[in-house]
Amino acid sequence: MTDVAMKVSDLDGEAPESTDYANYFCTYSYLYHQKDMLEDHKRTGAYYQAIMSNKRQFHNKVVLDVGTGSGILAIFAAKAGAKKVYAVEATSMALNARKLVAHNKLDHIVEVIQGTVETIKLPEKVDIIVSEWMGYFLLRESMLDSVLIARDKFLKEGGALYPSHANMYISPIATKITGNKAADLESSLDGWQGFTEDMSKYYQVDLSCFDQAFDEEQKEFFLGTSQWTDIHPSQVLGTASCFKRYDLHTVTLDELKGVLKAPFSMQVVTRGPVDALCGYFDVTFSGSAANPTDNNVILTTMPDQTGATHWGQQTFVMYPTLECAPGDTIKGDIVVTRRNDNQRLLKVEADVVVEGNSAFARNSKPRKFIYNID
Predict the structure, then answer these.
(1) Are 289 and 184 in contact (CB under 8 A)?
(2) Are strands 241-247 and 165-173 parallel, antiparallel or unpaired?
(3) What's the rounded Cα separation, in Å, for the pair 275 and 139?
(4) What are the residue numbers of the active site?
(5) Could you tell me the maximum CA-CA distance found in the chain, to the nearest angstrom?
(6) Helix (H, G, I), strand (E, B) or coil at 348
(7) Which residue among 105, 169, 253, 258 has the highest number of C-beta atoms inside a 10 angstrom radius?
(8) Are 1 and 106 spatial neighbours (Cβ–Cβ below 8 Å)?
(9) How do residues 229-277 score in pLDDT, each as one tens digit?
(10) What is the arithmetic mean of pLDDT over 288-316?
(11) Which three-class secondary structure state does DSSP give residue 136?
(12) Is residue 324 a contact partner of residue 294, using CB atoms and an 8 Å limit?
């Protein structure tokens, strides 16, 4: 559905725009997708601990849950002692959230509101905003925009966001994915050659004018598109570089929508080559300066021997691979922008060079990689 078919609350707002609904919101209207997120116990457990281990901060407070989905975070906030929770959900999942809240006998505290947070109106300011807004590589999906809009519209002076801070990282890794993707690319290009020969032989049509476009298209698909991965710590070849830190209480919407450009530096500690860069993030729940938490909680998506969160890591393959030696430093700049074809998706550019005393470093030349995060 693309509109509010059944009124959930007198505070209901407008439905998402139809194209944005089809590209993004619709997935969240299915219980199977809510289940995928809920059963990620590192994710759900971190939010549970951040809220329930800080009951003093939630006691008798007014809370706004942006993108409540099934309503789980709103329920946590109510159980932690909030006197009122506004749970906003843009999709028809709001009906399920309302059902779940009532089933858990918390509908006297939690009010579920259907509509985009940009269009709703609340009767009061809130003390705390909770939201699980993070996407792949932190920023994919651009849901943080909505959280910042809610912050600027509804959060009291000195109020707190959960999470309060976010960091972005890249690290060098070894992976067979790069070699596999290079082989798949070669196979695809060979297949194209056989296809064009057949078209010429059987139909007397010369398709060679498409050769370059097909080559570029396939290189972008196989080598220029990041991949969800579950990286084991043993694959990490060097130190991670935290290239961006966000304070969610102060970052502006203009900054978020603008170009993210930052330098990075990673020390190589294990012999290469480096097959790819691994991108991930963490968020911290520390409250605000006026209302800090008693117990800080960190939710990380870094490579973990116990397995990945549902966000996994984003792997950016480097082909040909990057030759380096222990003691070398991989330096460069990373640029993250929103895609022109879909503002909820990302484009990542990385300028990379190896510095150090090894023969690899002495012969290293600057290289540029461009990736899409679909």
Answers:
(1) no
(2) antiparallel
(3) 24
(4) 132, 141
(5) 78
(6) strand
(7) 169
(8) no
(9) 999 999 999 999 999 999 999 999 999 999 999 999 999 999 889 999 9
(10) 97
(11) coil
(12) no
φ, ψ of residue 54 to 5 degrees: the values are -130, 50
Look up tokens 């203009």; give the residue.
Answer: 254
CB neighbours of 75 closer than 8 A, spacing ≥ 6? 100, 101, 104, 106, 110
Confidence of residue 4 (pLDDT cuts 50, 70, 90): very low
Nearby residues of 152 by Cβ (< 8 Å), 6 or more positions away: 253
- Express the helix, strand and coil content of the chain in percent, nearest 5 each: 30, 35, 35
Here the tokens at position 217 are 């298209």
CA distance 28 to 34: 7
CA–CA distances in Å: residue 195 to residues 54, 76, 103, 114, 186: 63, 58, 59, 51, 14
One DSSP character per residue, 262-281 reads EEEEEEB-S---EEEEEEEE
- Distance in angstroms (rounded) separating the CA atoms of residues 245 and 258: 15
| pLDDT at residue 1 greater than cutoff 50 | no
Give dist(CA 177, CA 276) in Å, integer. Answer: 9
Residue 105, SS3? coil
pLDDT at position 31, please? 81
The SS3 assignment for 148 reads helix
- Residues linked to residue 244 through DSSP beta bridges, in sequence order: 168
303-315 core/surface letters (b: 16 or more CB in 10 A; e: else): bbeeebbebbbbb
Of 72, 116, 112, nearest to 94 by C-alpha is 112
